[in-house]
Amino acid sequence: MIEVKGLRRRFGPVVAVDGVSFSAAKGQVLGLLGPNGAGKTTTMRMLTCYIRPDGGTASVCGNDILTDSIGVRRSLGYLAENSPAYPEMTVGGFLKFICDVRQIKGRRRRQALDRVVPMCAIDSVYHQTIETLSKGYKRRVGLAQALIHDPDVLILDEPTDGLDPNQKHEVRKLIGAMAKDKCIIISTHILEEVEAVCSRAIIVARGKVLVDSTPQELKDKHHASLDEVFRKITRSKCA
After folding, report:
1. Where are the alpha helices (DSSP H) in 19-164?
2. SS3 of 65, please?
């Protein structure tokens, strides 16, 4: 469902992404790991057509990010790092606006809202303005907008950031329940989250892919916890 081939992106003198390549299929939850500044968010922004690569390309559900950005956007749901939304809108108003953008109308709109509102546990804040919400609820509203059109591919940047332990558990359970029918990429700093929901893990640093394996294989190979493996790999490559 996702094919990434030699993606590159530079910001002035800084090479943020340097020849990243990987693929991800339906039924996989791929964890994208790396220290701050590793290129994770930049890679996600290129995959979702928010920024254009300087080199390489990628496709999402057969749609090329360079030649068919509309097709890419239709086929995926994206939860950005800071959950951007219009603060003066109510939760319900914002989700209906997203339905308008995605041309979800009539019965399909009612069905979509009836599905995602309880799924993301935002019933109690549905009529509140987004600016009055806690960080955790804003994150859940961001997740709801990513799911509203039931996409085949989900790209989630720090999906549980700002959530309390109970909310994190619910979001992880939701990701696990969706995994068999979708291709999901998650960027996270929480290594326990990788072990809980990811079937694959890619570790990046300085814009390059260092490791592409499963969490269990990494632990078995290095005879260490995933946290220790992460530190060992990223420190040795970034030294």
Report:
1. 40-47, 69-75, 91-101, 106-119, 135-147
2. coil
Structural domains present in the chain: 2-82+152-238 (3.40.50.300)
Label residue 88 exposed, middle or buried (CB < 10 Å: 0-12, 13-18, 19+). exposed
* Per-residue pLDDT tens digits of the chain, which is 239 residues long: 999 999 999 999 999 999 999 999 999 999 999 888 899 999 999 999 999 999 999 999 999 999 999 999 999 999 998 778 899 999 999 999 999 999 999 999 999 999 999 999 999 999 999 999 998 899 999 999 999 999 999 999 989 887 888 888 888 989 998 998 999 999 987 888 898 899 999 999 999 999 999 999 999 998 999 989 988 888 865 54
Which residues lie closer than 8 Å to 195 by C-beta, 6 or more apart?
215, 226
Which tokens go with 192?
Answer: 């326990």
pTM higher than 0.85:
yes
Using the CB atoms, write b or e for 29-54: b if 16+ within 10 Å. Answer: bbbbbbbeebbbbbbbbbbbbeeebe
- Rounded to whole angstroms, the Cα distance separating 107 from 104 reads 9
Q: Measuring CA to CA, how many Å separate 74 from each of 51, 70, 71, 77, 180?
A: 16, 6, 5, 8, 20
